[in-house]
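Dig into this one:

. . .
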Amino acid sequence: MITETPALKRKPALSFWEIWNMSFGFLGIQFGFGLQNANTSRIFETLGADVEQIPILWIAAPLTGLIVQPIIGYFSDRTWHPRLGRRRPYFLVGAIMASIALCLMPNSPTLWVAAGMLWIMDASINVSMEPFRAFVGDNLPSEQRTTGFAMQSFFIGTGAVVASALPWMLANWLGISNVAPPGEISDSVKWSFYLGGIVFFVTVLWTVIRSKEYPPEELHQFEDNVTDHVEAEALSPEEYQREGKRLLRVGALTALLGAVFIALLFRADLNKELYILVFAIFFVGMLWVLAGAMKQSGRYQNGFVAIMSDLLRMPKAMQQLAVVQFFSWFALFSMWIYTTAGVTKHIYGTTDPTSALYNEGADWVGFCFAVYNGVAALVAFTLPVLAKYTSRRVTHLICLVLGGLGLISVYFINDPMLLLLSMVGVGIAWASILSMPYAMLAGALPSNKMGYFMGVFNFFIVIPQIVAATILGFIVGFFFEGEAIYALVVGGVGMIAAGLFCLFVEDKG
């Protein structure tokens, strides 16, 4: 039976400082991500990785997010602690784990230990980060959500500015060595990670202490929560059977597709990195088959079946935004993986990670990453204004095109200083990527599944990263003879394509 939720009311608007406090933890989260993005390739190369190996070593990060975020989202939707609330327990646990991992990562003795530490560090950061997106949807009325996500963009940009430039600042301002013997990480990178661990924990703790959350029973009374106006009618056993058959059918077709790709790769003897992608397709198909079988047998009241079933129930706006996210994050991942290798060879003319010239170039890449994050922080609060006078779709289109042109321009640069101009375009795109898709998405999601669907939305961040990690090494090696700079051009084209796909998104907010 369908029943209306009584006494629906407007969710109260929060003050500037309340939004500030609830977003402050993102400063530390992005401090961790900024250190990871700017220095992981450098650590891998220092420990002996070839340029073609770097993407596959990075695969740990997106795979971790693919697994962790929907699970954390699912459980955070169902959590309520009388003192810590709904999302904040996950903020705190993730911050503790990530701070420890940040201290351990630069002390990795071998390449494969470093790859494993990347996995642990990224999982910990994701535990904290995923509920922050749902936190905005929980606490803010619809008219403040664009501002809420823009505030997160501001802190993301600010944290990443310092984090990305930190090795350069420690080396040039404090005289800490940025050169180390072969196979060892420089002191400037080590101390950057230690400081990052401290900042991560302190900023997240600030949000945990200074923010509040609505109890579930109060949250369901707000009219902003679009699907909480009514309670869904329970499905009959026959309907569960039909849903089970659908899961079985979709899963079988997906697994078959993965198996065909595996056979084709085996016969063609292509790069082994491609197997990761096709095995992932096969694995997801088998998970759907398992969920369908469980549903048909009456075992549908469990988290696994709910997670796999809701993957096929994504709102239409979420499906449209998935395409935009795919091309956006493919471009970003190509930049994070290949900027150090591309710039040090294309502009500095060296591929020796033990040389002073290489480390000078790597430090400058970190500084450039700081610049694009700084630009993102500065423009974050202009995006809601631009969206007000145009639309969120058009705003995102403009920003992504500027970012794509910024990435492509790196190919034509010989003077390192000019890279700063390229990073301006990237920074504008980055600010929009961190806010506009989530602002468009939040209004289409039910509050009782906000965390879960925000976690699933992360799939369309993770999947392009997996695709990039599995095919970019092949593309660079086969088509461009190992010249990493061309990966940035490919990424720039992808970002412009993402902007064009924005025009097809239905944004009802």
Residues 142-173 form the longest helix (32 residues). The CA atoms of residues 397 and 499 lie 4 Å apart. Residues 232-310 form one domain. The two ends are 29 Å apart (CA to CA).
